[in-house]
Amino acid sequence: MKKSVFVLVLTVAVLSLPALAQSGGWGEGQGHSRHGRMGRQSVDDRVQRLTKDLNLTQDQQTKVKSILEDQQKQASSLMQDSSVSRQDRRAKFEQIREDTSQQIRAVLNQDQQKKFDELQSQRRNWTERKKGAANSSDQQ
User: Is the pLDDT of residue 18 over 50?
Assistant: First the structure.
């Protein structure tokens, strides 16, 4: 009996692999980006999102993409630097995020800046709620 259940499970698993491969595998469309990291979007995805949310012009898209690519390089370099403590790394990431936001904001017109500020506020609120939920579950 155990052997037949094992064979059945194995068969289902093997038959599922082609379907997963065709659909992009685990995670696509479930909070994963093209880079496979939960919650992380590629630069192009972020530019597309901002273009949709803020109605960016082509010139603004080019500038924002350059800013986001620079942010990505800085963050990647910081991740590679093993001499930085966890606390310092977190502070530096926050500074990179703030600098990036200010640079993007400078590219926008007044109406876009207002909408961008609202989006940033929503992101911060979501992050704080997420941290609060994680902290409350850690204490249980």
Answer: no
pTM, full prediction:
0.65
Three-state DSSP at 82 gives: coil
Q: How far is CA 64 from CA 99, 111, 119, in A?
A: 13, 16, 16
Q: What is the pLDDT of residue 131?
A: 73
* Domain regions of the chain by residue span: 1-30, 41-138
CA 31, 35, 37, 43: dihedral to nearest 10 degrees?
A: -70
Orientation angle between helical segments 86-107 and 110-138, nearest 10 degrees:
160
Altogether, the residues listed in the chain come to a count of 140
Residue with tokens 């703030």: 98
**Contact by Cβ (8 Å): 64, 107:** yes
Contact present, 116 and 108 (Cβ < 8 Å): yes
Name the phi and psi angles at 30, rounded to 5. -125, 40
| Three-state DSSP class for residue 127 | helix
Q: 86 has which bridge partners? A: none
